[in-house]
């Protein structure tokens, strides 16, 4: 086999690997709840609003 074909096979394998990793990440993100982050942001906003009001 020529070096060009070997290189093409290698690149195709790398692309498939990246696609699989992206699919895994997408599935993982689908299982994560972002609610705690939103609640934490809301609490921080409340603290900042109170500090601004008190000043």
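Q: What amino acid sequence fits the structure above?
A:
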């Amino acid at each position: 086999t020529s070096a060009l074909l070997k290189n093409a096979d290698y690149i195709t394998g790398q692309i498939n690997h990246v696609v699989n990793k992206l699919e895994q990440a997408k599935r993982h993100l689908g299982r994560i709840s972002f609610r705690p982050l939103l609640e934490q942001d809301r609490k921080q906003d409340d603290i900042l609003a109170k500090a601004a009001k008190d000043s």
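Q: And what stands out in the fold?
A: The mean pLDDT is 80.
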